Amino acid sequence: MATGDVRPRDWGYVLGREIGVATALGVTVGAAVWLLGLTRAAPEVAAVVAIAMVLVVVAGSLIGMALPVLLQRCKLDPATASTPLVTSLADIAGLLIYFGVAVVLLDLPVAA
């Protein structure tokens, strides 16, 4: 965006590419942590960590792609505001995804 190579009209193409690359990276890292989880914990825990890893990588990539576009549309400088905000939002999303996957797959009770 800063160099003008990506314009708002290219959003669909960039989104598709980001999802593809993030999914490939997430599956690769998810497979690695799944194997590690099998050697150090139960298969259920390995599955939780692997699935959460794939979802966290994809979510982080989508946040990192969408936030600068959103900031630019709000007439804010995407370069200065996006790094800490992307990191914080990706961390929050990562925890929510991880615990959500754990609750669903491990059949844990949900606090009221």
CATH superfamily: SLC41 divalent cation transporters, integral membrane domain
Rg, nearest Å:
17 Å
Number of strands: 0
Helix fraction bin: over 70%
CATH class: Mainly Alpha
Q: In the residues, how many domains can be counted?
A: 1
| Uncertain stretches | none
| Distinct helical segment count | 3
Derived structural class: mainly alpha
User: Strand count, sense and closure of the main sheet?
Assistant: none
Span of the ends, CA to CA: 44 Å
pLDDT averaged residue by residue: 87
- Residues in β-strands, percent: under 5%
Order of helices and strands: HHH
General shape:
elongated
Family: Belongs to the SLC41A transporter family.
Organism: Alkalilimnicola ehrlichii
Transmembrane segments: 21-39, 45-71, 83-106
Protein name: SLC41A/MgtE integral membrane domain-containing protein
Annotate the secondary structure layout:
Layout: H1 11-40, H2 43-73, H3 78-105
Helix pairs in contact: 1-2, 2-3
Subcellular location: Membrane
Transmembrane segments: 21-39, 45-71, 83-106
Family: Belongs to the SLC41A transporter family.
List keywords for this structure.
112 residues; mainly alpha; Tetracycline Repressor, domain 2; 3 helices; 79% helix; transmembrane; SLC41A/MgtE integral membrane domain-containing protein; membrane; transport; magnesium
Outline the structure in words.
GO terms for molecular function: monoatomic cation transmembrane transporter activity. Belongs to the SLC41A transporter family. It holds the Pfam family MgtE. This protein is an all-alpha fold. It has a single domain, classed as Tetracycline Repressor, domain 2 (Orthogonal Bundle). The chain is 79% helix and 0% strand. The chain is built from 3 helices and no strands. Helix 1 runs antiparallel to helix 2 (43-73) and helix 2 (43-73) packs antiparallel against helix 3 (78-105). The longest helix is centred in the middle third of the chain and has 31 residues, at 43-73.
